[in-house]
Amino acid sequence: MAKKTVPVSVTFDKDLFKRSVLYNIKTLYRKTLEEATPQQVFQAVAYAIKDAVVDNWMRTQEEYEKQDPKTVYYLSMEFLMGRALGNNIINLQAQKEVKEALDELGLDLNVIEDQEPDAALGNGGLGRLAACFLDSLATLGYAAYGCGIRYRYGMFKQEIRDGYQVEVPDNWLVDGNPFELRRPEYAKIVKFGGYVNVHIDENGRSNFVQEGYQSVKAIPYDLPIVGYGNGIVNTLRIWDAEAVECFQLDSFDKGDYQKAVEQENLARNIVEVLYPNDNHYAGKELRLKQQYFFISASVQEAVSKYMRKHDDIRKFYEKVTFQLNDTHPTVAVAELMRILMDEYYLTWDEAWEVTTKTCAYTNHTIMSEALEKWPIELFSRLLPRVYQIIEEINRRFILKIQEMYPGNQEKIRKMAIIYDGQVKMAHLAIAAGYSVNGVARLHTEILKHQELKDFYEMMPEKFNNKTNGITQRRFLLHANPLLADWVTAHVGNDWITDLPKINKLKVFADDEKSQQEFMNIKYQNKVRLAKYILEHNGIEVDPRSIFDVQVKRLHEYKRQLLNILHVMYLYNQLKDNPDMDFYPRTFIFGAKAAAGYYNAKMTIKLINSVADVVNNDPAINGKIKVVFIENYRVSNAEIIFAAADVSEQISTASKEASGTGNMKFMLNGALTLGTMDGANVEIVEEVGKENAFIFGLSSDEVINYENNGGYDPTEIFNNDPDIRRVLMQLINGTYAPGDPDRFRTLYNSLLNTLSTAKADTYFILKDFRSYAEAQKKVEAAYRDEKGWARSAILNVACSGKFTSDRTIQEYVDDIWHLDKVVLPKK
Ligand code: CR6
């Protein structure tokens, strides 16, 4: 039974905390508790928690100074942190004390937590993965920095108006961020533009100097990353931009004046907003500026921090490693080369050795539209010195290719870093990185044998897999307190820091009492979600119905369209056959679409239009409900995962590199309905095929079709009347009264009869029947309540592999080789 772990360093002083809250309200707002607004109460509580955190933060950093462990810099354009308060309280192991203290003050922790805006500095899985990794690094006791950008506006807020997505700016810093610390003493200067001049110094050495540039000051803001119950607090360092010098209004030099204005504007624009594209490269100049801005600042800081303690920059890699989260931070390679050569006077070979022993690259997608390829003109104009260095890296890399494959032009065409007027960031990352990893086994295999085949053949030793993971602290302990307590009551609380221990639950899968308890908890979580849906959407849903959930970014390859077409198909069946035996189902969607992604936005409109018709048709007696949850984000995701019965993971096989939502559902006892794609493959391997619903083409089949020019969906259209009917309803006004052409582009994407355009590139019609069959099996399975409970419990029990603690430990063992830090007892 429940075993208690002893908090290592945290003794949480309840009375001090209470006094601190009241004091904060007084000094921050000149108010009493009774007079304070909910937001002010949140701020006061957050500052009180920060107080407790800061002590550990200082102690950790002191210890790092003493022990000098090797440090990973996780370089990422995105950190999708969500809310900090609840998570910090949990990781301080102070939940009980904080709740009691607040209770005594007449305050409700849940209400207070709801006041905090999400730190939405990311788009989707890639950004959230970075956040989970930071949690695991601190919890496992590894020295780490997250390095990113302090966007003034994070991911936009989504409003649904008349069924359409409307993007509203997310002014997440309006009330201030209580957890952040501004560190102007670590500011760095970042230079853009100008030209490179060569100066010969007195020793006859050529020095490359950038001249005529504009510069920006990068100011770091530090956020604490609290490890669970170990007293460790790491740092997420996000950079803000400021103009270098204040405006010289008295400047007589027109050129100076002009430059001052430009620098001011550059600084203002650079960190203004997160690009809302997931898995898509837009090629915007400002985006490259953002990339170089935070990378230059982070690399400069890493080097100067190292040099404060060491004297030989040639051994930099012994103490520092850079992990590139996708290709977005790849300029780090050239920036490090620049600093080593231009500022520390290393030779090319010395600098190259350090760089290639420091940088490692993670690939997160095979989608070709996501590959970053910058036009040479833009790149060299913005980053002249960095571009020179990349040219030289490219020249030498091509020599290596020629050495291995003499006379093979084809190899050079396919592998060069600079080719066809473009700088290819993935090629640079692979050539300069000491490790290249994919994010799930299947994805890594596809990289090795398809997408990056040539690179794998040339440098097989660099390639490795690191299947993604998620933190159980946020996605079970915080998100689902009922289930968390239940798990702990059954198998103890080791799972909090050692998730594989959760497999002791297996023996309860067949226990009827446990099954009932489990289903009861799921029911209560469904009630909680139903309440949220009623409050936020005005739609009433029945918590006894099957909650069938697809929440993730809206993308054609993720096939929300397949899901909603299937709902249309079911609705047709029910209309034809009102008495048919049908288990009530609530289809829940949540998804943001990139602002310029037309088909994605129209899919949102379609989902809402189907919802309007279906939810309001008395003829089907409420058997189907469709809900589109507005503004899907980390904070409401926590409520959604806890309440799900069915986890929709229905991407076209081969397209979803890993997925991480799939793991969060599993941990919360939802059954996967999915394709053999990404990490679904490994999920099914852990829990068994019989406890999931697998359908559709395999990745090999998909790739095979693709290599042979696709497939012909018209055949399916012609031969399957049910599918044809659903498709016709896209263009006959069934869901767009008065505007039958509204969904024409969606229809065309599935069935373009023009022979020139490819149709159904995501195999929706091809997989439709198999999906519908799987959905039937879901219904049958759900009717067997005990059987369902058994499978659901087994999903929880078998989720151990998918903790980000495991993923991080693998990165440490195979790539980073960090030293574990233990804080001495206080
Ligand atoms: N969009 C993948 O598509 C993966 C995450 C994290 C993604 C997704 O399958 O789980 O990364 N890729 O590895 C990119 O963002 C490029 C994602 O979140």
From TrEMBL:
InterPro entries: Glycg_phsphrylas, Glyco_trans_35, Pyridoxal_P_attach_site. The keyword Glycosyltransferase applies. Keywords: Carbohydrate metabolism, Glycosyltransferase, Pyridoxal phosphate, Transferase. It catalyses: [(1->4)-alpha-D-glucosyl](n) + phosphate = [(1->4)-alpha-D-glucosyl](n-1) + alpha-D-glucose 1-phosphate. It is an enzyme of class 2 (transferase). Pfam families: Phosphorylase. Its EC number is 2.4.1.1. It comes from the Bacteria. Its cofactor is pyridoxal 5'-phosphate. Belongs to the glycogen phosphorylase family. Allosteric enzyme that catalyzes the rate-limiting step in glycogen catabolism, the phosphorolytic cleavage of glycogen to produce glucose-1-phosphate, and plays a central role in maintaining cellular and organismal glucose homeostasis. This is Alpha-1,4 glucan phosphorylase.
